[in-house]
Amino acid sequence: MKKSLLIFFAVFLFASVLSAQDTVVAKVGGSVVTAGELKERFHLTPQVYKKQMDTALKRRELLYSIIAEKLWALEAENQKLDSSSAMQSTFKQIEKMFVRDALYKAEITDKIVISEEELTKEMENYFTSLSLYFLFESDSAASNGFYEKLNSGISVFSILTPGEFEAPMIEVNYGDMKPDLEEKLFSLEENGFTRPIKSGGGWIIFYLAKRNQKSFTSEDVNSSLKKVEKFLRQKKEQKKLNEFMKSFFSGKKITTNGELFWSMTGQIARQLQKKKPKQQNDSVVVRFDALDYEQAAANLGSDTLKMPFVIDETYPLLVDEFLRTITFEGFGANKTDINSISYLLNAKVKTIIENEQIAREAYNRGYQNLADVKRSIAMWRDNYLARLLKYQIISSITTTEDEVRDYYFALNNGKQLPVPEANIIEVLTDSLEVVELVLDKLNNGADFRALAMQHTKRLWVKKNNGEFGFFPINLYGEIGKAAAQMEIGEVYGPLKVDDSYSIFKLIDRKEAPTSAEVPFEEVKDKLYEEVRIKKLAQKFIDYTVELANKYGVDVNQQAVNNILLKDYQMLVYRYMGFGGRLLAVPLTIPFTEWVTPWLEQKKENP
Fold first, then answer.
1. What's 578's DSSP letter?
2. What angle do CA 397, 379, 16 make, to 5 degrees?
């Protein structure tokens, strides 16, 4: 399968991907684009369908796309969209993730210290295997009885069932067990044993029969050192996290309003049931999205939304805040009956309460004002504000029948070129997990059509064997724009489409028929959409030029040229402290069509 790019997922937790680079490469009104931001967004975003474009052109395209984003963000703020309900329901959740992450860094990762002695001991364990018997009992009293016998000096072989000691012992190597259990096992001397340990449906006593020293060379030690140090750091990190959570929540008494819980559960179940017909099987997951939130909120009423669901004297969590949180997190279910929804929702309550309390602690410490946090928050804030203004413009475009008729006659008279058409196979999903799964399978040679039929949320595409069917390339926004530039067989994605992600493969493209005139009534609906899209595309260009003139744009081209970029072709996640993940940087939709008319205006009016 031919692809336009090979995408790898680098999944990690980090406080800052790149070292701070304060060189300003562009001023956009009161905002700036720094070398660090440009470099970060270039490296951590796939440069899709641009195989033939050199790095300098890619750099220019990304820079001016970011500038356009910041211009739209400035205007959105000017129009008070930063205080809108949509902004509060999405961006605020991202902001909380960043301040929690800063608290995690301060309380967990920055406090991890690994001594040379600890690392040496860990390396010894790495090159050791343990031969163990284990005594399992479903009854705790019986297990404690075995432990007392061993403590009194009775041999393990007299406790084991006759013949059992002849069975192969289990072999345990470094990294095989959970860290806390592994620490217990590797601390044992030969013929030593653990206390009874709860496991599954019973209790286990581990008995160490023999420690086996593996042979190794100095090269083995050098090659394993980083791996062992990483594992030791993870163990210490988990231990510190457990200690922090225990200490932080100690003595905190937090309760929830049961009546409000069932009111929300009913509304959520009702919205999800609308999306999932009864005949669909349980493998289909439906998610509670922004439109569902709006409907549920309207049904509950403003008074209920203002009521505290989480009862806490200092920081109560309102019904509205709780609903916005599960909307942002993409709460989903494969069964939509009220009992199934209540079970899933109840499991979310504890995590949401904990995250909210931790975020508020981080705000109290002022972590939202840390330089790295402010930089990350500002980047995502601009992206969200720009999208809000874009949606507002899209909804404002109208088309009259006279405009459509003029376009129709221009097509037939040769004054307007017909729009080429494309056909694609697409996966559209609102789940980052599905994005990761699909890209991973594509990289391993999976059939795109099969993936589309399994994972796309467009039901009509699923029913059409994964295909869109031919459509004019000026439809479907950035999807059509990308399809116009791709080669047949290439794959594009992921592309941010509203609140979802699109990955698609171009399977065919053709010129629109021009030989015979089709009656207006037969093509009217199609032409309506074509005219609307053409008007919208031009509006975006004209509006961005207008904003560039209004706020001012100044590019430091020499600073831009000095930035060294590498085309890694990676889509990177950022795993956040205390849980949660998002893309390392916002996906930037290429948009440079406004630049030439803006530069021409500058020449005319210097």
1. T
2. 155
> How open is the CA angle 536-542-543, to the nearest 5 degrees?
85
Lookup: tokens for 1: 């399968």
Please report, as a single letter, which amino acid is at residue 405: R
Question: 3-class SS at 193?
Answer: strand
Q: Would you state the structure tokens that stand for residue 60, as one six-digit string?
A: 């220019």
What the block records as the tokens of 104 is 């995690």
Q: In what order do the strands lie in the sheet with 491-497?
A: 471-472, 421-429, 500-510, 491-497
The contacts of residue 574 (CB under 8 Å, 6+ apart) are 12, 13, 14, 17, 581, 582, 583, 584
CB atoms under 10 Å from CB of 297, counted, come to: 20
* Alpha-carbon Rg for the chain in angstroms: 30
Q: Does pTM surpass 0.85?
A: no
Tokens of 89: 């329901």
pLDDT at 98: 96
CA dist 295 and 290 (Å) reads 9
User: In a 3-state reduction of DSSP, which class is residue 184?
Assistant: helix
Q: Which domains does the chain have, with CATH numbers?
A: 116-247 (3.10.50.40)
d(CA 269, CA 281): 17
pLDDT at 514: 53
The number of residues in the chain equals: 606
pLDDT by residue (tens digit) across 155-213? 877 776 655 444 457 899 998 988 889 999 999 999 999 999 988 788 999 999 999 99
262 contact partners, CB below 8 Å, separation of at least 6:
342
Q: Phi first, then psi: what are they for 32, rounded to 5°?
A: -135, 155
- Residues whose CB falls within 8 Å of the CB of residue 195, separated by 6 or more in sequence, listed in order: 147, 205
